[in-house]
Amino acid sequence: MPKYHRPTSRADALAALAEGGARARALVGGTDLLVGLRHHHDVADVLVDLKGVTDLPEPIVVTDDGVQIGPTYTMGELVSHPVIGAWYPALVEAALTVGSVAIRNRASLVGNSCNASPAADTAPPLLVHGARVTITSLDGDRTASLDEFFLGPRRTLCGPGELVTRLDLPRPAPGSASAFRRLTRRRGVDLATVSVAAGVGPDGALVVGMGAVGPRPLRTASAGPVDLTDDASLDRALDELLAPATPITDVRGSREYRLATLRVLTRRAVLAAADRRDPREMAS
Amino acid sequence: MTSTARVPDHLDADELQTVTLTVNGSERTVAVPTHRTLLDGLREEVGLPGTKSCCAEGECGACTVLLDGRAVNSCLVLCVEAEGHEVTTVEGLSADGLTDLQEEFLNAGAVQCGFCIPGQVVSAEYLLRTNPDPDEVQIREALSGNLCRCAGYQRIVRAVQATAARRSER
Prior knowledge:
The structure holds 2 protein chains of 2 kinds.
Chain A: E1 3-5, H1 10-20, E2 24-27, H2 33-38, E3 46-49, E4 60-63, E5 66-69, H3 75-79, H4 82-87, H5 89-95, H6 101-104, H7 109-115, H8 123-128, E6 132-137, E7 140-145, H9 146-149, E8 150-152, E9 155-156, E10 163-170, E11 177-184, E12 192-200, E13 205-211, E14 218-225, H10 231-241, H11 255-276
Chain B: E1 17-23, E2 26-32, H1 38-45, E3 64-67, E4 70-73, E5 86-88, H2 100-107, H3 117-130, H4 136-142, H5 153-169
Parallel strand pairs in B: 1-5
Antiparallel strand pairs in B: 1-2, 3-4, 3-5
């Protein structure tokens, strides 16, 4: 039976995580963690509930330069935030595919990244938007890009005794935009078969975040601007952008099916993002 | 009404945590092991079996309750997490008799085997409280986490539409 802590201070939470070591888990929504414990996929014996901690970073802070998100900010809060919707549309589209309304009312955005599923729905848009995380322990803070943070299936830079206390999203450049596309077998309950987020810069430069096509969520960027009015140019760009994808065959789809679908979804996401750009802010 | 914490015979008292929460407006105190879900606590300790246990992993929605007014899967909440919080189960949606929403479920013939209905009703009530005039797409999205094995979805959607219409006339 796991030991349950409900600390009220960050210092107490970090101390409990440090004491529990590799078998301690931070608990926010529990929508993945409690399922893992029930099926014995997770062997945690210390749960540190962050919801009573009063001195963690605010759930959300919006500045002129971007958005800072704390560890207890839920998907439900995220999808209805007007600034998130305006600046990071792909993130809202992705969060809306996470589970159901009841799941989103509990699940946290930061927890979705910390859980590090290769199919985490919010990972592709966070990668596209250049998210950085702050990892805190009793020894202090360090920061990393989310791309560096994901090490492999269920593995991140956040080690024993550490806690992700903040996720930072820079404000997107004027004239850029993003979009998310996902294929799944049943809305509301199933994981992604393939997911992809695309960011298009004011000059046509592309950034792509991919889910469920590798051991971890993947991020790639084009070397330069892409002429999106020319199919052949976009095709060549997709060849390069999607090359790192190495999907496996499993119950949700075959490797070949995933690769074919990834290309279709990425093209759709790129064109949808391009259409969202404000022409007045785009490079001429 | 306050109930006294009860220690199940097969457990040592020191393995239990005492949790005080408000259930359907009444303060309740239960003694539970840390792994006890809110779902099982409501059914077994508090004695409210309206909330149903089915998949126990947040996929079917049969266990949906309102936690501080927000719909959640009670199978994915630990009792100990609910300390100090307010829970509303399907039994607590109305002080006496059926709610208008429950009546419309009956009027629409939306109840077949009935197992998923408490969860459907709680999710639909949450939708109507947060969006009193939902369109069909919004109703289906709001209920996408509530599975009905009888596949009675058309009539469930109609029941929610009828309730929204009825409430707008008040």
